[in-house]
Amino acid sequence: MSLVTEIDNFAATTNHPTPSSEIRFDWTRSEILELLDQSFSDLLFQAQSIHRKYFDPNKVQVSQLMSIKTGGCAEDCKYCPQSSHYSTGIDAEKLVATDAILGEATAARDGGASRFCMGAAWRDLKDRDMEAMVEIISGVKSLGMETCMTLGMLSDSQANTLAEAGLDYYNHNIDTSPEFYGNVITTRTFQERLDTLERVRDAGMKTCTGGIVGMGESRSDRAGMIEALATMPKHPESVPINLLIRIEGTPFEQNEDFDILEFVRTVAVTRITMPKSWVRLSAGRDSMSDEAQALCFLAGANSMFKGDKLLTANNVAEDKDKALLKRLGMEFS
Ligand code: SAM
Ligand code: DTB
Ligand code: SF4
């Protein structure tokens, strides 16, 4: 029996929403909550079945991050080590020189990364930095890598200039549900995030947007975050799901441990609702067991960051990642 038939038969035996083979943009909060509420086994079966229709389940896309402008950010995101509102031990630095960025990109490419993701701790991109961004994008592209940047809010003309320079992806996370957003960030609105994402889409770039789990939000908030992503006019091509890294000095430092199986559920429902998107197992892998990461891959995660560091926080050591992928029979795509 084909997997498509199997999943259709399976769906007929449950009262849960049928995970359709077509791509939907009309997901409702209650449908998404129903998906999240299922038994773990039913949920993972659906997610893995859908995953296999669109992707090779044994391949993982690998990106590498670099912080090109660290610290001193004017925003008050309560999770972030780079916000100037909190004392986290991260000092404000200047924009890194283009040559140094290209050196890191070359090393990332030689280590197997197909995309180089550059992050800046800015509230918004300033026109005075645009020339440098264009130079960096063309330099990284000439190395044969895909490019991604996350530089804060953009204007229409900035989005167009980045797209013309050849930027493939723009990362701008919605972070959580519209309702919980005010508990996390007060210096800009959820709508402003959506506006920048619309500009990125209109300029013809791919969107990379997702959020953070473990900030004290409810399951309904996690459903709300997924709803906001899965009802965008075009699904984000890349959806990073981050597990909160509890950074000393931030308001979320003392947050409770998050149930990792609930994290896996969030990944699974992200996969089911956005079947063709790359679902990235992002921040927080460092604190996950090999078994938890394996469950995330089973739930449909198919992208991750390699390298010892994310932007400022630790990531998983490379030899540990290699060993895990080998044990799972997975390889870089
Ligand atoms: N300043 C830009 C912005 O906010 O869009 C780009 C950089 S910002 C660090 C990129 C994303 O990293 C955030 O949107 C957030 O989702 C994630 N992030 C930051 N700190 C984190 C933490 N402690 N744990 C998990 N994810 C985190
Ligand atoms: C995303 O969603 N996660 C990445 C990337 N997009 C830019 C960043 C994670 C940052 C974790 C905290 C740090 O390294 O400072
Ligand atoms: Fe600034 Fe981005 Fe950190 Fe928010 S998440 S404080 S915008 S660097």
Beta-strand content? 5-15%
What structural class do helix, strand and pairing data support? alpha/beta
What separation lies between the terminal Cα atoms?
Answer: 28 Å
The CATH architecture assignment turns out to be: Alpha-Beta Barrel
Q: What series of H and E elements makes up the topology?
A: HHHEHEHEHEHEEHEHEHEHE
Residue ranges: pLDDT <50 for 5 or more in a row?
Answer: 1-8, 10-18
The CATH topology comes to TIM Barrel
* Main β-sheet description: 10 strands, parallel
Count of individual beta strands? 10
Question: What number is the mean pLDDT?
Answer: 94
* Rg over CA atoms: 19 Å
What do we call the CATH homologous superfamily?
Answer: Aldolase class I
Write down the overall geometry.
globular
- The protein's oligomeric status is single chain
Give every kind of bound small molecule, once each: S-adenosylmethionine, 6-(5-methyl-2-OXO-imidazolidin-4-yl)-hexanoic acid, iron/sulfur cluster
Number of domains: 1
CATH top level assignment: Alpha Beta
The helix count comes to 11
Which percent bin holds the helix content?
A: 25-40%
